[in-house]
Amino acid sequence: MQKIVANLWFDGRVEEALEFYTSLLPDSRVLNIVHYSEVGPGTPDQIMFADFELAGQQFTLVNGNTFFKPNAAFSLCINCDDQAEIDRLWECLTSNGGAESVGGWLTDRFGVSWQISAPQLHEMLASDDAAAVARVTAAFMQMKKLDIAELERAFNDG
After folding, report:
1. Which residues pair with 116 in a beta bridge?
2. Sequential DSSP letters for the chain
3. Which pLDDT tens digit goes with each residue over 117-150?
4. Number of structural domains, the chain?
5. Parallel, antiparallel, or unpaired: how do β-strands 99-100 and 47-54 relate?
6. Which CATH number goes with the domain that contains 27?
7. What strand order describes the sheet that includes 99-100?
8. How confident is the model at residue 157 (pLDDT cuts 50, 70, 90)?
9. Which domain holds residue 133?
C-alpha cells in the first residue's frame, strides 16, 4: 500500500470520474469500491469512496457532499513525454465542461485542477542562463496548452 494517498472530494458522479480518470493513462485501474451502509449518510447503492491508480499512483475519490469544492490550491501534474501526449491529455481533460487556464493549467469537468507539463520545460527553467529562463517564462505564461517547440524556440533565441 502506498504511504501517502491523495483524496479527491466529490459530490456524486464518482463512477463517471473513475471511468474517465482510469482511461487517461496506462497503468491505471480501479482498486477498490466501498459503498455506504444502511447507517448512511448515503444510501447503500451509493459509493462512499473508491481507490484507484492513475499511472501507478494511488488516489481515493471520496463521495462526500457539497461541503467541500475542488480548487486550484491542489492540482495534479502530468509530465508528458511529448507534444502528442500533451495534446491528447489537454483535449480529454478540457472536454465536456473542462476549462483551460494559463501556463499548462486546466480544470476538468469535475472541478479538479491539472497541470499538463513536460520535463523539457522544467529543464529549461532550471537553466543557469537567466535570459533564456526569462524568455521561456514569458512564453509559457502566454500559453494555455504548452507548445514544446515554441518553448524551445524561446529558450534558444537569445
Report:
1. 78
2. --SS-EEEEESS-HHHHHHHHHTTSSS-EEEEEEE--TTSSS-TTSEEEEEEEETTEEEEEEE--TT----TTSEEEEE-SSHHHHHHHHHHHHTTT-EE-STTEEE-TTS-EEEEE-HHHHHHHT-S-HHHHHHHHHHHHH-SS--HHHHHHHHH--
3. 999 999 999 999 999 999 999 999 999 999 999 9
4. 2
5. unpaired
6. 3.30.720.100
7. 75-79, 113-117, 105-107, 99-100
8. very high
9. 75-156
Same domain (yes/no): 58, 84: no
Could you tell me if 96 and 147 lie in one domain?
A: yes
For residues 154 and 139, the answer to whether their CB atoms sit within 8 Å is yes
Determine contact, residues 111/69, Cβ cutoff 8 Å. yes
**The three cell numbers locating residue 113:** 485542477
pLDDT band at 72 (very low <50, low <70, confident <90, very high): confident
User: Looking at residue 69, what is its pLDDT?
Assistant: 83
- Cell numbers placing 13: 458522479
57 and 79 co-located in one domain = no
**Do 109 and 98 meet the contact criterion of CB atoms below 8 Å apart?**
yes
In a domain, 68, yes or no: no
Q: Is the pLDDT of residue 71 over 70?
A: yes
